[in-house]
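step: validate -> pass
step: tokenize input -> pass
step: predict -> running
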Amino acid sequence: MRPAFAGIEKKALQLGDYSIDGLEDICVVERKDLSDLIHSCTTERIAFVKRLKLMAAYPHRLLVVTSTLSQMKSPYAHTNVDPNRTMQFLVATLAGLQVPFIFSETHELGEELVASYLYQVHLYHWLESHDYGPFLSDNDL
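step: predict -> pass
step: emit ->
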């Protein structure tokens, strides 16, 4: 499989794990594997909620969970955290903060999702900033 990111620059961002060079003020992607998500929703909840509230102010924001929904909804090994608690946290994040989330079965598929999302954000931004409007072609997305 080819790497989804080509020519990336690794640097600290003010918020999130991924963005687009020059669009860091409008685009943020946070990525969590399942154990990190559980930890963020429980032990680190206050800090995570603060980051999600900051993300909510960005026009383009996405939370990518590297797990399947069925894994997230199944009992967790080595913790007594109720999977429903994690699910309700994500749904509250979507409903209350309008921060969308998506599940990715593997790290590699998550990387592809993030790359595709960032590409589309960049493309639509370019179209609109060059007066083409927010459409790739007439009567389409």
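step: describe -> Strands lie at 27-33, 60-66, 101-104.
step: cleanup -> pass
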